[in-house]
């Protein structure tokens, strides 16, 4: 691996909202698998899809097709439930990101309480890891949550960037500092650090510049921007923003 590629920040493109648009009419168009293949051509290093309990966007058939057709890693986001565990163990995606899930929420709100939920989450981490799946926990940028993730043997954490993206001015800077500190803490603790939620061209730069972060997962903004510029162009522009921000 060259020094350049070792430092390269990976981009995981989340195709959930391609499925949201498809499901608005109940047919097959637009197909999230076609979007995933296009995303890879445009520079995505991996594809992320969240199979929610209520199947509001990605379906079981989408996961099956993504597993069959993708040549890049699939990161399956899921809640820590028996149903989802069985699905993950059947498909064995490259990675599983455990996320909190509430039926009434519009999107994933906040990170997992890994510290408070240790006894519930630890068996999911070990069963998925035993099956060769790389497990990450979607958590807030908080050393307590990072310690909990490490103590249950998760190799990866994904830091929630939603509040940082929504904040403005000094509040945004303070939240960015928390993400920077948490990424350094994760790195020193031997955890691979990812980040995501709410990232856009405007907010991605400072997060992409954090050297301890290895991967960003981005979906909603890219799918929305695709309406104006096309999906491939939105991904290429995000890739350029990430590369421009990354310290060499
Ligand atoms: N990471 C996680 C764990 C998520 O749940 C989501 C949303 O599904 C994302 C990243 C991507 O967030 P967005 O769609 O806002 O870019």
Topology:
Layout: H1 3-7, E1 10-14, H2 16-25, H3 32-41, E2 46-50, H4 60-69, E3 74-78, H5 82-91, E4 95-98, H6 118-130, E5 134-139, H7 143-151, E6 156-160, H8 162-166, H9 169-188, E7 192-196, H10 201-208, E8 213-218, H11 220-229, H12 231-245
Parallel strand pairs: 1-2, 1-8, 2-3, 3-4, 4-5, 5-6, 6-7, 7-8
Bound molecules: pyridoxine-5'-phosphate.
Residues 14, 16, 50, 77, 97, 99, 107-108, 138, 158, 196-199, 217-221 line the site of pyridoxine-5'-phosphate.
Give your account of this protein's structure:
The protein has one domain (32-245): Aldolase class I (TIM Barrel), CATH 3.20.20. Helices cover 50% and strands 17% of the residues. The protein is built from twelve helices and eight strands. The protein has an eight-stranded parallel β-barrel with strand order 1-2-3-4-5-6-7-8, surrounded by seven helices. Helix 7 (143-151) links the parallel strand 5 (134-139) and strand 6 (156-160). The chain is globular. The two termini are 15 Å apart. The protein binds pyridoxine-5'-phosphate. Pyridoxine-5'-phosphate binds next to strand 8 and helix 11.
Annotation keywords:
globular; 12 helices; binds pyridoxine-5'-phosphate; 17% strand; TIM Barrel; 248 residues; alpha/beta
């Amino acid at each position: 691996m060259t020094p350049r590629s070792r430092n390269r920040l990976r981009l995981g493109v989340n195709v959930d909202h391609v499925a949201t648009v498809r499901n608005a009419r109940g047919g097959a168009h637009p197909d999230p698998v076609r979007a995933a293949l296009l995303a890879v051509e445009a520079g995505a290093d991996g594809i992320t899809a969240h199979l929610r309990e209520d199947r509001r966007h990605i379906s079981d058939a989408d996961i099956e097709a993504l597993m069959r057709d993708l040549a890049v890693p699939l990161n399956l986001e899921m809640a820590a439930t028996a149903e989802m565990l069985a699905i993950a163990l059947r498909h064995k995606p490259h990675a599983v990101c455990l996320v909190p899930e509430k039926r009434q929420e519009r999107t994933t709100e906040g990170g997992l309480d890994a510290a408070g939920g240790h006894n519930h989450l630890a068996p999911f981490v070990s069963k998925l890891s035993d099956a060769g799946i790389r497990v990450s926990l979607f958590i807030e940028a908080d050393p307590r949550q990072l310690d909990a993730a490490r103590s249950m043997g998760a190799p990866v954490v994904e830091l929630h960037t939603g509040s940082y993206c929504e904040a403005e001015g000094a509040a945004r800077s303070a939240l960015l500092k928390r993400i920077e500190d948490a990424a350094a803490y994760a790195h020193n603790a031997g955890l691979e650090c990812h980040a995501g939620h709410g990232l856009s061209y405007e907010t991605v730069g400072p997060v992409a510049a954090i050297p301890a972060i290895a991967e960003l997962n981005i979906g909603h903004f890219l799918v929305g921007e695709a309406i104006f510029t096309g999906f491939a162009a939105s991904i290429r522009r995000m890739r350029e923003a990430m590369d421009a921000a990354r310290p060499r």
